[in-house]
Amino acid sequence: MNIRKHLKGQLLFAFASMVIGVIALVIFILLALNGTVRGNIFVYTGTVAIGFLLGGILLVVDYFITSRNPSRKKRIEKQMELNNEERKIFLRTKSGNEAFGFSLWLVMGLWGLSTLVNTSLNTIFPFLLGFMFLSYLVSMVVNTQKY
Amino acid sequence: MPPRRTNIQNKIKLLREQNGFTQQDLAEKVSVSRQTIISLESGRYNPSIFLAYHIARVFNLTIEDVFLFEEKNKE
Lengths: 147, 75
Known about the structure:
The structure holds two protein chains of two kinds. Helix content of chain A is about 85%, strand content about 0%.
């Protein structure tokens, strides 16, 4: 992928983020106008609106800075090339597979546990998401040292 | 036929130093990171045939001159 294609993709992603952010913001405002200022949906839409809008705006700013700076463009292009080198692809694939394997065992274990102690899996899911991310990170660190 | 395990050793460090290249120089010549060169030199990572070919080409040698394949019968 060349830098022009990368920047175009970044701009598209930024606009998509902002569209999601605006939709969430509209829902958030409608909820506020209706007096629904409490509850999960209010917090959720507010967080999505702020996160996606801010992320989208920052990506657009980065797009304009990068497109006007040739040395930055060259640096990103080099970084993109290095990110796709074979060892990094190998490390990402191996770590992803390991994290998936660990998570699969954890899901099976938690499912069994939730049945035994009669708890909803909803309370366990956030922990599971965190574990998946953490196990990928740990696998990546270990494999980077190993290979 | 018993299964065979292949060990790969290489002379990258020796050849690099003989040619006066730093790890960064060699990394740039074959479009990989310096960490990859470090891993290759220490024998922790085995390269693909394409990377092995590119490295051999930098030293004007063949793959067999740079990488030493040892076949061992699995006990």
